Amino acid sequence: MLIAYKDGKCYRIQAKYTSTRILKNKTNWADKNGCHERKYNSDDFDFYGVYLPDINQVVYPSIKFGGCGIRTKPPKSPNPFYWWEDFTDFTEEAPKRTYKEFGVDLTTRKVNLEARVLTRKVVRPSKEELEKLVWEKPTAQIGKDFGVSDKSVEKWCKAYGIDKPPRGYWAKQGRAVDC
């Protein structure tokens, strides 16, 4: 426990670390009698001093926020959340934020195709190239050639609207799959 003095008041601070950004509202310990757990009482301390490693910041929420989560990135869901910047000083009250305050638009489900193409890890073959490949060799082999799974190749075919050979096609061809 730490003690802080600010504006003529003395505050008791419980120092914590969280990579999950959840403020634990209980303490755990072990002794010769086993493992124990006790919920914090409102008079145990005044504020958490929580280190958030993903943004390298310490925040100071009141003990009232025990059990709550603190976001460091805007969510991609409509659920209200507590924002880390609201806790940079000793904080007794904080508003729950919404995704709208951060410019996130969840109302449209349109996909920006240009942005998706730029973020792909593997460049897809063109429709014509893939259409030719699926009739030359099995999807498992095409996947290996591109460094992806056969499921990925199937998804590419579905996205392009390409018909693949029917199940058992390669077995009937008498070809061995080169692995």
From TrEMBL:
GO molecular function, one term: nucleic acid binding
Top-level taxon of origin: Bacteria
Domain called PD(D/E)XK endonuclease: residue spans: 2-66
Protein name as catalogued: PD(D/E)XK endonuclease domain-containing protein
Origin species: Trichormus variabilis NIES-23
